[in-house]
Every structure is written in structure tokens, then in C-alpha cells.
Amino acid sequence: MSYGGKFVAVDGAYDDANRIASVIGDSNGYGIVNINMRPYYVEGSKTLAFEVLEQLNWIVPDVLVIPVGSGAMLNAICKGFEEIMNIGLISDISNLRIIAAQPNGCAPIVDAYKNRSNEVIPVEKPDTVAKSLAIGDPGDGLYVLKRLRQFNGIGEKVTDSEIKNAILLLAKSEGIFTEPAGGVAVGVLKKLIEENKIDKDENIVCYVTGNGLKTTESITDLLPTPSSVKPDIRLVSAMIR
């Protein structure tokens, strides 16, 4: 809006906004990166695999924890690892484990995994603080299930409370302020380590892909209310002791 863009808020879920954007984009010839230009979006997402491998000096990690909405990013990351292996920069990814992380209020893919089902049943009314993952009818859900089988993976979900606590944990321990999608990934990682489903000594990569400044309202209920005092050194000193 600061740059003069037109902003329209859709009174509905993520899927409603996507559907409307798709129709308008197709009928007016608009290019929408997340909709009718999605092949380019996915090709860009696979570089998340390239970056991780480069930073790890081309050593394949043991575990990847990936937040999942539509499932496109998880599939793209897997594609990236496969392409790097095919050109010979790494030799083997058979021991790599993929973790699909979703919020409890919208977890159709994880629910399908836990029910050992090949059918991803849409969530009609997502209810989660992780709005960017609130995709009730994930387009790549079946492919995520396929990837979990391919990479001996796990699907897990966390509550809003666990997401918010994970946001604060990451901020306090690493100085990284993430949006709720990142809190989903960190929360799932914490949960699986506590349940001994992931060894804490493994080489683990947790994808945190969105900045918390996008969604500051998500954790305001957990933060203390600032106190106001007069500009007096004694009063301020007394408060910070």
C-alpha cells in the first residue's frame, strides 16, 4: 500500500483468496507468482536445497524439517536434492529423512500420513495462527505423502500454543523472529526430539522461511505490556533491577 498498490482483503480462508486470484488472473491476463506462474515459483523453491548443501560443504544432512501448506515447497526441496545428486556434487541421499510439519488447525496431509491413507481430505474451515499454512485443500498433498515414503519421513502437527512458544524459543535462543510457519517447523522439531523420534545429535536442518514482522499479532498475547514511567533515572533503574 505504501508503494501505491491496491490491497483487497478477502473475507475467507487462504483457499478462497487463491481461487479468486486464479480466476481473475486467468481472465485478465495477470501474472500471479503464486498462482498461474507457479512452475517458476517451484523452481525457485528448490534452491532452498542448494543453499543448505552449500552451507554444509556438500554434506547431506540427516533430517529436514519443512513447514507444509500446499506441499509445493517440500516437493521442490526434494527435487533440489535429487538434481544436485544427479550432477554429482553429492553421492547419496537415501539416508535423508523428510519431516512434514503442519499446524493442528489445518493438517490434512499429516492427518492422511497418520491414518496411513493415500487420500488427503480437505479441511473446509482451517483454524490456526499459522495463516500462511492454512491451505485446506493442498494441491501437492499426495506428492508430499509420496516423498515421506521415499525418504522414510514423518508427518507431525503442533497446536497454536506450541507454535507460539516455538516462535519465542527461537527468538530468545537464536535471535531469529519467525512468522508462525517457522514456529510450526521449530515446534514439530522440538516435539519429535522430546518423543525420541529424532536424535538431538543428528545433523538437522529446520526450514524457517518467513519473518515474524509479517504477523506480530500472533504472539502479542504472550508478551508483557510495557510500563510507562516519567524520565527519572531512579524510577527506571528500579524497574529494570
Morphology:
globular
N→C terminal distance: 42 Å
Number of helices: 9
Give me the secondary-structure category.
alpha/beta
Q: Would you write up a description of this structure?
A:
It is a single chain. The protein has 241 residues and is of the alpha/beta class. It folds into 2 domains: 1-36, no CATH class; 38-222, Rossmann fold (3-Layer(aba) Sandwich), CATH 3.40.50.1100. 42% of the residues lie in helices and 8% in strands. It has 9 helices and 4 strands. A 4-stranded parallel sheet has the order 3-2-1-4, with helices on both faces. Helix 2 packs across helix 4, helix 5 packs across helix 6 (141-150) and helix 7 (160-174) crosses helix 8. The longest helix is centred in the N-terminal third of the chain and has 15 residues, at 14-28. The chain is globular and about 65 Å long. The N and C termini lie far apart (42 Å). The model has no long low-confidence stretch (mean pLDDT 93).
Quick synopsis:
This protein is an alpha/beta fold and 241 residues long. The protein contains nine helices and four strands; from the N terminus they run H-H-H-E-H-E-H-H-E-H-H-E-H.
What topology emerges from the helices and strands here?
Elements: H1 14-28, H2 38-45, H3 47-55, E1 63-67, H4 72-86, E2 97-103, H5 108-114, H6 141-150, E3 154-158, H7 160-174, H8 180-194, E4 204-206, H9 233-240
Parallel strand pairs: 1-2, 1-4, 2-3
Helix pairs in contact: 2-4, 3-4, 4-6, 5-6, 7-8
Tag the structure with descriptive keywords:
8% strand; 9 helices; 241 residues; alpha/beta; Rossmann fold; 2 domains
